Amino acid sequence: MTALKILILGVVCVQLSCGREFSTLNHIRSKTPSDVQSTAAADLIKRVIGVRASDFLVSVDPSIGPKNRDTFKLVSSGAKLSITGTSGVAVAMGFYYYLKYYCGGQFTWAGQQVALPTVLPVIASPGKVVTSNDQFRYYQNVCTVSYSFAWWDWARWEREIDWMALQGINLPLAFTGQEAIFQRVYMAMGFTDKDLESHFGGAAFLAWARMGNIHGWGGPLPQTWMDAQLILQHQIVTRMRSLGITPVLPGFAGHVPAAITRVFPQANVTRLGGWSNFHQNYSETYLLDFSDPLFSKIGGSFIKAMEYEFGVDHIYNADTFNEMTPRSNDPAYLAAAAKGVYNGMLAGDTQAIWLMQGWLFMEQGFWKPPQIKALLTGVPQGKMIILDLISELYPIYARTESYYGQPFIWCMLHNFGGTMELYGALDKVNGGPSAGRSFPNTTMVGTGLTPEGINQNEVMYEFMNEQAWRPGPVNLLDWIDSYQKQRYNGGNKFTSVAWALLKASVYNSTSGHMDFNGVLYTRRPSLLMKEYIWYDPEQLYQAWDNMVLASTTPALGNNTLFTYDLVDVTRNSLQILSSMYYHDIIAAYNTTNTSQLQTAGQKMVDLLSDLDTLLASDVHFLLGTWTEAARQFSLDVNDTILYDLNSRNQVTLWGPTGQIRDYAAKQWSGLINRYYKPRWQLFVDSLVNSTKTGIPFNNVKYDQDTFSTVELPFSNDHTAFPTTTTGSSVDLAAKFHQKYRSETKSKFFSQFPRKSDRTSAFSKQLARQWGRALA
Hints:
With about 775 residues, the protein is an alpha/beta fold. The chain is built from 29 helices and 17 strands.
């Protein structure tokens, strides 16, 4: 049976796997007139496929499906295709379903393959009808706004909102511009600009300032930034609403400027504990007591100010204790805390719904069942939605009696810090959402994406978003073959095998992936480092073999999604070689073999140079894309200095002295040559000096030297990095494949899981048939 037939048969049973519905959430839906949504959906389709948009007839009719679940209907009307949806986002979802499974296309972060057949495939009457399983399809982690969205302009936001709608997302965060609203509220209460300078975080660190983890670091936040972000937020929420998407606006969580002790001397405030080794100058944020009358005053004023500025959708996000320990574990205190936050929302909106990330409950030392239950039941049932933030690995609903009756959304977190390692748990995502819906007394009301950073592992997000309408698990091998065909305009036998191997290796994590940065070369070197390789490396290398073979086909060599994936697979294949070279370096040092140490060290440095060269061939892997996007907000040299610090520091030191060093590490051209490689060169040179002098390597001195000579200078640098590519991705992938493939046969890799399957054998057979000798 073909993958298409499996998909079409699957949607017939979609209503058999629907989630729970809460009458308390009935008002969380679009209020935009159907004709406006229809026009917005038609405009979106035109942005995606241009003049061919005239081949589609679009209409919005809420009556064609269940009240709180989106439905779309596809049916041919002469030579055109008619798409009817219960909302604009349902129409967009229907269009994308047709684009993928009838026309073999794809629209992703890295680009699109949207070439339509001259004659559109026919869907005969009565047509294809698909209904979502749940009320909500959520998007974003509160950290995504900083790790990935920090420097976006309207053009980038417009494309992302198009992507959201195509993926069926109807409940995303809309956090842009909130500092301008807080500024308005606080200054009306007597605070000054100076008071807020030390409260707001820098542009690249706003996510953590908003959660009270830090304050002031990366600032002060320019007024021009706040004003520009306010304008941008208007564009964002207007476009979202026009498509029938409900934006989640911010609420007041209780974190206040330190100057509150001056402005309101009688205010009942405490200081939260420190966070991630930040000094109190940038941490230990003031928290207003939930019972203090000021709490409702600030919370209500903030929401009313937002309603005045942007209108109202009645759903707000607030995270008071995210990665912060409450001052008391008394259930009564925690229940009062929840009630206080919610009452602050009610003071501004009597129909408020509180959306909260469930990440804090991962910390089981403090958050035991009585504490969790107290916090959740401090809010009336059905008036709070919990994001089960990492359901694919650690579903909290399963150990909290489905959040003690509060509705929750089953989320795939997947990524930390926006790092770029090829990784996924396809099997867990395949069955997880349907298991959540069938859980005893389930309160599941949706599915969601909650990555800390995007622009990586696109296959995982395409697959996860389909869980919004799938009735249950599918044959993953069939699905992934369908995926690569959509991506590469049909692909070929080599891409088919490559993706089967990727599915069996890097996307087959079964034990959980909580190593926040498992990429060895992006971490500051030391004598004791461990790699994290959960798969058979040879399967990844055989996937690389097949991608390189496929690249010789002109149609693929000119396909931007294919070349992006070719660079990505080549990058990851070279990346894990750094683990082998590191082990060779340490072995040589331990035996005081200076010659072998120098050889191994040079291999590591050469590998990093080659990685930088490879990544320079694709615009998605350029440091300059990130740093120059930050600079666009500069009006003078002071702005440039500030935004340079923010953009460079976040992806390296993450703090004034490396408080969260290398957490948001990116594998980008420019970052490798200017940051990672000098650290490794200094490490190797230090070890060589130790073997020559007989003086043991001093790790403390090395750390001090690398901070002062590499890391801090880079964070404070103002060098402009290229924003245009250099070299051919196809040629460079082939060059480095020829150079390094023999290295992958080392005994070093035999220690990792070895898996033999028919795919690996077929991969070798294909290589022989192609007539090329792969190392």
